[in-house]
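User: Could you check the structure of this?
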Amino acid sequence: MKKKTSDGGGRAAVWIATWFGCGYWPAGPGTAGSLAALAIAIALHRYAGFGQWGFALLAFGAAIPAAWAADVTAKRLKIKDPGCVVVDEVVGQWLALAGAAAYNWKSYLGAFLLFRAFDIWKPPPVRQLEHLRGGIGITADDLMAGVYAALVLFLAGWFNLY
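Assistant: Sure, the predicted structure tokens are below.
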């Protein structure tokens, strides 16, 4: 009889961290993760009525499991911030959407472009948060990029730009 061994949640962590395989996209895995988050958000808005509070709660509620999955995956791969880990982009993208005053193609596009810009540019303190240990650092910088994107999106909505 073969003995069953547990991988300590490693496989589940990798699936979550790569957002069910989006992180393996060959060109721009972070962008693929953000697009997957956006697709889920559009469905949640349309079919479950998610709005600003829903997306904020979703992002913060997913942040702890995201940090755990990112940490476990980084340790398994022995890489500080593996490119295949995109769950951080997912939570950051959802947080960016929490700033939208209305949900339409313009706000979705704006949230996506703003989040990706802040995630790539990494203005302070985004870059500094990236230096925190393990999964917390992997996730915290994207949450801050999401905060910046949400603020800009909120201001754009305030001025009826979308």
